[in-house]
Amino acid sequence: ESAMFQQFVTAESISADGHHVELAGNIGKPEDVDNILANGGDGIGLFRTEFLYMDRQELPSEEEQFTAYKTVLEKMGQKPTVVRTLDIGGDKELPYLKLEPEMNPFLGHRAIRLCLEQQDIFRTQLRALLRASVYGNLKIMFPMIATLDEFRKAKALLEEEKEKLFSEGIEVSSDIEIGMMVEIPSAALIADLFAKEADFLSIGTNDLIQYTLAADRMNEKVSYLYQPFHPAILRLVKMAIDAGHANGKWVGMCGEMAGDEIAIPILLALGLDEFSMSASSILRARAHISDLSKVELMQHLDKILSLSTSMEVEQYMKKLLNTNN
Ligand code: PEP
Ligand code: MG
């Protein structure tokens, strides 16, 4: 099967009717970059940096992080590389931080919430990122943003660290895009406000689905509620994409949905700019997109968005994809 897609390693990510998208990869460790490049990734759409903090006894130093980010950026060259700041909490624990147990960890003190409180941890990461920025095409993204205040505070801390580095005479890239994940319903619902202040948005469907349907993404008992094609999810995704575009910003997706065969045509029709997925999904997605006509799919959008259940959307799409082949 991999041989079948080999021709797509060096191919452009382009639909049958000539619409360009970006097919990027998700990574957790610097060494994962090789696999993204071997699979023809146009960029990194999500570097989950928490893996640098896990399976160890203490926080990674600024120097250690700098080396990790520099390695990734150098390997990617001019290809866009979106690094997400620490997203710890929820299912991802750091025993050495001795965080208090919580009743509802997924609704608790995690990710940007923790970083804005434990600023020393956050600032160390931001410094490492800023120092590494001169080695490639860095974009920084904040996870679990629920309010504009959080996004502004995170940006302000980044700005402060940048100023400090300037005054120390350390070089920092002058064009680092700053974006955020849209993975909490509140963020999707006010994506128009966020899009004025962010350089890009990246939709995190893994959490967006969990929070929108109130169904723990780790709990098998409620996995039937984990519905990427639920009309509520499609509407939130559309809101985020439209809000980004109305403000001249690009919009990506780095949740599992971005690599889904049925979701891809819908996302293409909605105008998603960047699809970020596991390395092993990139070539299949590129082949799939090369067979799809964006303009044709757009003619089905109103119908798709008017359907009432996840099942109806899936059935409609399966039929549509079969008749096209
Ligand atoms: C997401 O929530 O969709 C996402 C990409 O982030 P993670 O899976 O790391 O929570
Ligand atoms: Mg998430």
From TrEMBL:
Residues the entry annotates as binding Mg(2+): 183, 207
- Where, in this chain's numbering, is phosphoenolpyruvate bound? 48, 84, 206-207, 217
The GO cellular component terms are: cytoplasm
**What is the main EC category here?**
transferase
**Which chemical reaction does it catalyze?**
L-histidyl-[protein] + phosphoenolpyruvate = N(pros)-phospho-L-histidyl-[protein] + pyruvate
Q: Name one GO molecular function term.
A: metal ion binding
Could you name the domain of life of the organism this protein comes from?
Bacteria
- Catalytic center at which residues? 254 (proton donor)
Protein name stated in the entry: Phosphoenolpyruvate-protein phosphotransferase
Upper classification of the source organism reads: Bacteria, Bacillati, Bacillota, Bacilli, Bacillales
Whole-protein coverage range: 248 to 572 of 572
